[in-house]
Request: fold
Amino acid sequence: MRISSFDDYELIDTSSGEKLERFGNIILIRPDPQIIWDTPKIHPLWKNAHARYIRSKSGGGNWEIYKKIPDVWTIQYKGLKFRLKPMGFKHTGIFPEQATNWDYIYNTIKKSKKKLKVLNLFAYTGGATLAALSAGAEACHVDASKGMTLWAKENVKESNLQNESVRFLVDDCLKFVQREKRRGHFYDGIIMDPPSYGRGPGGEVWKLEENIFPLLNACAEIFSKDAVFFILNSYSAGISASVMEYLLNITIKKGRQGVVSSSEIGLPVSTNNLVLPCGSTAIWQSTNF
Reply:
């Protein structure tokens, strides 16, 4: 299990399908279906949170606000700054468990003797983009949502990285990768954090189990001959870490010198020192780097 220390974020407690979290000085209660245990909610912040997200039986849900919350507030991770706000489907604009991957991205790029070109697909609000830029890479940030892309631009500006080499594109990830192949553009590092289900800007339907293999094959064709790393994340229960490791072995590693590893990523729970699993990551790493 890979975890990281995140001063501005804390998973305080978990019980009865919910997690009690601190984002900066804002306390939120959010649902998590894998929390199937019903332990006593002893921590006082369970009764003193700023807001709780309540799922609707018909789908979606809403925030119950108990205390005034800023329209937007900022937290940071090792100098990377993130603008947060309560959104639909329980989101806040950040996945704190990804910090362990940001560390890997930053440290790997820092070791390079050349300026790496990094592609971030399904890039959301740009955590991996910020990590790559702060380490000195040239980044290409691709997401199907215009709103998330604008949010990522704000995070880049907030982190004082707006003068670094970065492109932002609102596009369907597979179509973009296919165009990059035709243009003859290659990348030294690729990061992919696909949803289980989604739609592209043109209404294209994305289903992880059906579309991930063709996309990985397409990415292999724009991976530079001196490529350094490839990261694949998944939050889908139907695709385990070992399945993702297998996928990278038969697509990205094929014909390349490198090793593939995989693991769960998680968040430490303050009240009991256990770790809540929060998805999986598989990484291909060049052995020539």
About this structure: The longest helix spans residues 99-111. The mean pLDDT is 95.
